[in-house]
């Protein structure tokens, strides 16, 4: 099973662009002390990330027939968002305090660990990432 596919790479590039733009817009919004701007930035970012994941994930599932219940996309998103969150903190953008970043990383990490457990259960019903029923039909 290929772990890194073309569609996963395209998603990672899109997520990187969206996350950098979100962090920059969030910095500007917090600097203006505008709660509506922060809310709009967050909603737009959520929408962009959701549709990018849905688009590239559905194409990846069709092209590669990998049965991983989206875990690869989840871990790429986690690594990008947490890394860029800490980077924005250390370069001086006023997005959120370090304590908030740590709590977010831990909470999301727990969710990622649960997703990993579900991923392992799904892999028990697969052979090299392919669903057994699809192979032996």
Short characterization:
The chain is mainly α and 137 residues long. The chain contains 5 helices and 2 strands; from the N terminus they run ααααββα.
Q: How would you characterize the overall build of this protein?
A:
The protein is mostly helical and 137 residues long. It is built from five helices and two strands; from the N terminus they run H-H-H-H-E-E-H. The protein has helices at 6-31, 35-64, 71-90, 98-124, 132-135, and strands spanning 126-127, 130-131. Helix 1 runs antiparallel to helix 2, helix 1 (6-31) runs parallel beside helix 3 (71-90) and helix 3 runs antiparallel to helix 4 (98-124). The radius of gyration is 17 Å and the shape is elongated.
Cα-to-Cα separation, first versus last residue = 20 Å
Task: State mean pLDDT (0 to 100 scale).
Answer: 85
Major sheet size, sense and barrel closure: 2 strands, antiparallel
What is Rg? 17 Å
Q: Report the count of strand segments.
A: 2
Compute the number of helices.
Answer: 5
Q: Please report which band the strand proportion falls in: under 5%, 5-15%, 15-25%, 25-35%, 35-45% or over 45%.
A: under 5%
Strand order of the largest sheet: 1-2
Order of helices and strands: HHHHEEH
What's the helical proportion of residues? over 70%
Which term fits the overall shape? elongated
Q: Structural class given helices, strands, pairing?
A: mainly alpha
Low-confidence stretches: none
Oligomeric assembly: single chain
